[in-house]
Specification:
The protein is α/β, with parallel strands linked by helices. Helix content is about 35%, strand content about 25%. The structure holds guanosine-5'-diphosphate (GDP) and magnesium ion. The site of magnesium ion has 7 residues, from α1.
């Protein structure tokens, strides 16, 4: 992508992707969530949500931040959004019934086999649900041969989201150096 770095934030619906993008974007973020106003339907929010936000880094480059739609039925959009992306933040919702299965779905979608894709696993909602703990995530990643840091994150806190971005940028740098002859 010309004139900037493209990174993705992915994870299940309700994990906090929109919250994360909103927390640090310098522009009013684009968000495509559709609020259901039909009182006959129980569901309050239909998260077809795609997010877009921008952030200028200290070195002047512009970060283009894309939050992917959460549902698997939108996985064609994941492929579209992945094009040109330098790295991905996988936002986990620890309250989900099987977070490791969620993680596998996102790893399969966003990290290329046999290649180190810059990636950070951010475990959210740990205040509501402490287990699985970070160690469990780390050993799951290790078993899968994925090199990727795991951190506890509450995306309601902008400083923590900025920390995730920094961590991902470090991964992107390290990866670029690995591939420089
Ligand atoms: N208690 C708690 N709430 C969180 C945490 N992370 C996100 N949230 C909340 O969970 C909701 C996530 O919604 P949203 O950002 O729309 O999720 P999305 O579907 O992934 O875009 C928001 O109401 C956040 O304030 C967390 O770590 N702890
Ligand atoms: Mg959303």
């Amino acid at each position: 992508m010309s004139g900037g770095l493209k990174i993705l934030v992915s994870g299940t619906a309700g994990a906090g992707k929109s919250t994360a993008v909103r927390a640090i974007s310098e522009i009013v973020p684009v968000n495509t969530d559709v609020r259901n106003t039909d009182p006959r339907l129980a569901k309050e929010l239909t998260t077809a949500g795609l997010d877009y936000g921008e952030l200028t880094l200290d070195n002047g480059s512009k970060l283009h931040l894309y939050g992917t739609p959460g549902q698997e039925r939108f996985d064609f959009m994941w492929r579209v959004l992945s094009r040109g992306a330098l790295g991905v933040i996988l936002l986990m919702d620890n309250r989900r019934p099987a977070p490791m299965q969620d993680l596998d779905i996102y790893l399969n979608a966003f990290t290329r086999a046999k290649e180190h894709t810059p990636c950070v696993v951010a475990v959210g909602h740990m205040d509501a649900q402490a287990l699985p703990d970070l160690e469990a995530y780390a050993s799951h990643l290790q078993q899968r041969g994925v090199l990727c840091p795991v951190v506890a994150t509450d995306v309601r806190d902008a400083a923590q989201v900025a920390g995730l971005i920094d961590l991902l940028l470090l991964q992107i740098d390290a990866c670029a150096q690995e591939h420089t002859p």
